[in-house]
Amino acid sequence: MGIFKNEAEFQKALDRLNAFSMDLKWQATHARQEHVDEFGIKIAYGAIYYRKRVSYNSSFAVKLSRESMEKLLDLTVEIHPGMEQIADKLLMAREQGLRDAVAMLEKDVPA
Description:
three-stranded antiparallel beta sheet, 3 helices, 48% helix, globular
């Protein structure tokens, strides 16, 4: 692996980073052609890379290789315990909001 001990640890850090974005989140995708990411790292055909659209009004997306994403996560989320805590609170609040919405819908459905 790289900076992270396992895939679950990497995914948790990615979820934390995505917690700071309401809609346009980083998403894993398979390269259908070769790319070069924002830091000049080559993304090979078939490799998993991460992309994030910059707006709904544009098809432009920022692309990061797995290597670059690991570095970004390490520098932004992992070494800042305060960011981890804020991200975890955002994730918990969103989950609670979804549970509340489902409960409201279930209450309104006739038996």
